[in-house]
Amino acid sequence: FCEVGSGRQRDYEKLAIFGATPRARRGAELKVLSAVETKVPGYFDKIRDDVVSRDKGKDDTGTWGTDTMTFQDDELSYALGKQGGTRKKLEKSSGAVVQYVGHNALFSGTRSERKRAREYMKWLFEQLEGPVYVEDWADRDDCTVVEVPADCIGYITGARRAALGSMEEEWGVLMFFMNRKDSRGGRGGENEKLIICGPERARRGAELKVMSGVETKSPGTFTRGVREKTSSERGLDTDRIIFKDDELSYAL
Question: Is residue 143 pLDDT above 90, yes or no?
Fold first, then answer.
């Protein structure tokens, strides 16, 4: 806290936040504002313009900024999730700083990060109304889709979505099964598309975790005919090693 002037008879004090990047400072600032709004409802509205415009364009891309969204009471609890889990996975998967100040959601980051955060939030709320299908998933660079056999869907999802939620938390991604409104949703032996949203490495980690689960439930789904492979790619890629039974238990 910055001591400006003398005496303690002031309505407020200035809190200085130091950090090398707008992202770090904004993350701490919004966390503080969230706590203040809980204690003094309505305070954020008085300083909204200053907060939203702060550090605008001050990053390497020149697109840094803050978008806002307003929630109703029931929407806020859903967007927050158990122990803030939904907010955290939106933040990690989109790359934006995501924080709730009262009934306001603030998304801070580059233009592409903010766009992803808003889209992910939109998909979450659309799931309350019915099936969600991301039509352009194949053209996006932030999504991976895994075909999950019908008899493995329950196993991958877990009771009350516990298994999916655990993978989301572990890898910092957003995951849900995509269905069109007229789809039978895995009934009748049809596969379902599981979409994984987030950074490339995180998506790959979650994808392999899902594949491992499916392979446990339905051996051969992904490994039938697979051979060893060593990639020559300089960036992110996957190598494969084939284990014998005794080697697998040791490696695990």
Answer: yes
Query: Across the chain, where does the E strand assignment appear?
Result: 65-70, 97-101, 104-109, 143-148, 174-178, 192-197
Contacts of 46-52 with CB under 8 Å at 24 or more apart are 48/104, 51/106, 52/106
Rg (CA), the chain: 22
Nearest of 219, 213, 110 to residue 153 by alpha carbon? 213
Q: What whole-number distance in Å separates Cα of residue 172 and Cα of residue 44? A: 29
**Alpha carbons 75 and 61: distance in angstroms, whole number:** 32
Q: CA 197 from chain center: how many Å? A: 7
Of all residues in the chain, what percent carry a pLDDT higher than 90? 75
Cβ atoms within 10 Å, residue 195: 21
pLDDT in tens, 83-133: 899 999 999 999 999 999 999 999 999 999 999 999 999 999 999 888 999
Helix (H, G, I), strand (E, B) or coil at 247: helix
Tokens 């979650």 -> residue: 206
pLDDT, position 5: 62
Rounded to whole angstroms, the Cα distance separating 195 from 218 reads 20
Phi and psi dihedrals of 143, rounded to 5?
-130, 145
Count of Cβ atoms closer than 10 Å to residue 23 Cβ: 19
Are the CB atoms for 218 and 233 separated by under 8 Å? no
Identity of residue 51? V
Query: CB-based contacts of 221: which residues, under 8 Å, 6+ apart?
Result: 149, 152, 211, 214, 215
Beta bridge partners of 67: 107
Token pair of 209 as six digits: 């975790």
